[in-house]
Amino acid sequence: MAYLTRYLDSPIGTLVLRADDSALREILFVEAPEAVADASPILDAACAQLTAYFAGELMQFDLPLGGEGTEFQRSVWGALTTIPYGETCSYADIAHKIDNPKSVRAVGMANGKNPLSIVVPCHRVIGSSGKLTGYAGGLSRKEWLLAHEAAHSDYRLV
């Protein structure tokens, strides 16, 4: 299926957004945008909400999401959406949240395959030691996102 596409410049790099008529399917970091700006109410809403997020004016996204993955991956991504803005949790916390406490490594793998960066906040998952761990967009982006949320919420990084 061909998706509608839009590019968005952000403080941490260019994002490519892809959607179909029913849901947002991908938000990924890219090196350089292409000259594409498909008409889509979902992409319009996603760009507006991401712009407000980066301005510190939006703490919760309200978009139809349709990231493609296995049932397990979708359960992990669903759990990610429950992590409050400005807070973090561990991979073990997510494994417990999906009632599969022995799946910590699999949670990490699913987290890394999240197709909806920022909106499905995989950047809010950190190691059980409290240290930042992998992020598909790069650790510097993860650090920026967490600091951005800390600056716009009552939560502060320790």
Automatic annotation (TrEMBL):
Residues 71-150 form the Methylated-DNA-[protein]-cysteine S-methyltransferase DNA binding domain. It catalyses: a 6-O-methyl-2'-deoxyguanosine in DNA + L-cysteinyl-[protein] = S-methyl-L-cysteinyl-[protein] + a 2'-deoxyguanosine in DNA; a 4-O-methyl-thymidine in DNA + L-cysteinyl-[protein] = a thymidine in DNA + S-methyl-L-cysteinyl-[protein]. GO terms for molecular function: methylated-DNA-[protein]-cysteine S-methyltransferase activity. Its EC number is 2.1.1.63. GO terms for biological process: DNA alkylation repair; methylation. GO terms for cellular component: cytoplasm. Residues 6-65 form the Methylguanine DNA methyltransferase ribonuclease-like domain. Transmembrane segments: none annotated. Keywords: Cytoplasm, DNA damage, DNA repair, Methyltransferase, Transferase. InterPro entries: MethylDNA_cys_MeTrfase_AS, MethylDNA_cys_MeTrfase_DNA-bd, MethylDNA_cys_MeTrfase_DNAb, MethylG_MeTrfase_N, MGMT, MGMT_N_sf, WH-like_DNA-bd_sf. It is found in: Cytoplasm. The active site is at C122 (nucleophile). It comes from the Bacteria. Involved in the cellular defense against the biological effects of O6-methylguanine (O6-MeG) and O4-methylthymine (O4-MeT) in DNA. Repairs the methylated nucleobase in DNA by stoichiometrically transferring the methyl group to a cysteine residue in the enzyme. This is a suicide reaction: the enzyme is irreversibly inactivated. This enzyme catalyzes only one turnover and therefore is not strictly catalytic. According to one definition, an enzyme is a biocatalyst that acts repeatedly and over many reaction cycles. Belongs to the MGMT family. This is Methylated-DNA--protein-cysteine methyltransferase. It comes from Neptunomonas marina.
